[in-house]
Amino acid sequence: MKKSTERLIEGGLAFSGLVTVLTTLAIIYVLLSESWGFFQEVSLFSFLTDVEWTPLFTNKHYGILPLLSGTILTTLIALLTALPFGITISVYLSEYAPKGFRKSIKPALETLAAVPTVVYGFFALTVVTPFLQSFIPGLSTFNALSAGIVMGIMIIPLISSLSEDALQAVPKSLREASFGMGATRFQTAFKVVVPAASSGILVSIILGISRAIGETMVVAIAAGQQPTLTFDPRDAVETITAYIVQVSLGDVQHGSLEYKTIFAAGISLFVFTFLLNNISYRLKKKYQEQYE
Amino acid sequence: MKLIEADDVNVYYGDNHVLKDISLSIKENTVTAFIGPSGCGKSTFLRTLNRMNDYIDTFRLEGKIEIDGKNIYGKKVKVEELRQKVGMVFQKPNPFPKSIFENVAYGLKIQGSNDKDLIADRVEKSLKQAALWGEVKDILNKSALSLSGGQQQRLCIARTLAVKPSIILMDEPASALDPISTAKIEELIFELKTKYTIVIVTHNMQQAARISERTAFFYLGNLVEYDKTSEIFTNPKHKQTENYITGRFG
Ligand SMILES: Nc1ncnc2c1ncn2[C@@H]1O[C@H](COP(=O)(O)OP(=O)(O)O)[C@@H](O)[C@H]1O
Ligand SMILES: [Mg+2]
Fold first, then answer.
1. pLDDT digits (tens, 9 = 90+) for A109-125
2. Under CATH, what is the fold of the domain A65-291?
3. pTM of the model
4. Among A150, B99, B117, B201, which is most buried by a count of CB atoms within 10 Å?
5. In chain A, what are the domain boundaries?
6. A185 burial via Cβ count (<10 Å: 0-12, 13-18, 19+)
């Protein structure tokens, strides 16, 4: 009796594992095969060097660079917004806040991360952009800056929560050593604890970057949908993800070249985030070794 | 001269009364050993001397502790200054994950010193004092974590010396080390006592006998006996002390 239920559970677990692996493999397969079709018609060289991306116009260009620059620009702005706040919050929580406060604030932070991204998108468009326009001349209604800032706000909980974990993982004995030599809390936090947790903090930052790169709604709503090769944050831009949404929601014909651009864009995104996750994995391993 | 003077010190962790009416005074340039069974309050008392217990929420102290004639729990006391004067070496070597040089330079740097020559000079002197210079002088930029446990502990001592404290507190500094490293640390303590006042917690009775001039025996939060080390070990006044040093302990 007991044996058979156990076998059932085991089977269920194995099945769930298998489903996940198969799904991933299927995604990679579809991405590869569909973009294979794309690269039959557009050379990889022009894909990587053409400075225009206009697959939906009559004068067609298939250069990924404008989408890439849009992605990098919004991500960079998000990062510049999230880093100072995220790190400050994590240091405050880990090194200054009373234990009870820390325990209650962390779930709250994590709830903030669960707000639907559409909400953030409209917040960017209807609150942040008008506000920024009041003192930044030449800021378009759709712009990279506003979208980036709001994405930054969105990833603050992720970065501060993971960084706080990394800071907490620093052994108490190091703090004691520092205090014992007459260091203040501030010196101990920034000269000992943060450096000792640096690879863990870096991992949180990279995950934040991955999150920003993969973010779709905010940029689709607030950054405009104009693939332009620019690094001016006041301009409207389009990110890879926003483009994918745009085309998926439009009425391009299944199997057409326009349709296949989704997968070409998708595989670029995949390679990009795959590299980042890889780096973060390596850093994490290194950081775990340090204290074992 | 009396350097440290504790007067009717009581310590509580929440409702747990862990030190009871402790009074003792420690003279300059001596080595004083705290002995007693585990959990009797040795570490707690040691850490009241540089206010390291301040970070424990439930910690509460009554009574008075004076160092150099000043109440260290007084309102105007800056703990940072106190700890520059009262250095500490911990049970487990705890070097920073930085280079050997940076570990020793840390105390000076946080005091705001950026005179490179002075720092380099002090690092060398401190490492020499800690009998580590010969082993590390060519690898100062290597990570402190690459050193052996015994070397790490001497590095921690050098790091403490670099701040020029007058008192050094040591909480079982050799308990995590092999016998050879332990011997080196003991030798070091012997040399340091001409310049520093050392208070050392140890549960190694032979160690207490070898290196200290005075020994305090703690039991269940009480200071049972405090006397010249030779007296404690050859002629203890209390039955509990005698039981402990002869190893006849429940
Ligand atoms: N951080 C703490 N919080 C609460 N109780 C503590 C803490 N540290 C030590 N104690 C308690 O205080 C008593 C004395 O501990 P300690 O000073 O570490 O003894 P020793 O160093 O002699 O082994 C023990 O009963 C211990 O459980
Ligand atoms: Mg102890």
1. 878 878 899 999 999 99
2. MetI-like fold (1.10.3720)
3. 0.85
4. A150
5. 2-41, 65-291
6. middle
